[in-house]
Specification:
Blueprint: H1 6-14, E1 23-24, H2 31-40, E2 45-46
Parallel strand pairs: 1-2
Amino acid sequence: MPPVNLKVLKKAAEGIPAGVPVATGERIHQRGEYRELFELQAADVIQPDIGHI
């Protein structure tokens, strides 16, 4: 899945067994994209790439 398609990430995360954390954020560069990620609750761990931001 494309790393910036947060709706697809949400759908994939729903299919992952409970207790297995989902991490993303390395390719997100704008605050609005993080906001969408938080609103969708599509990931358990946020890992921004400080070098890209």
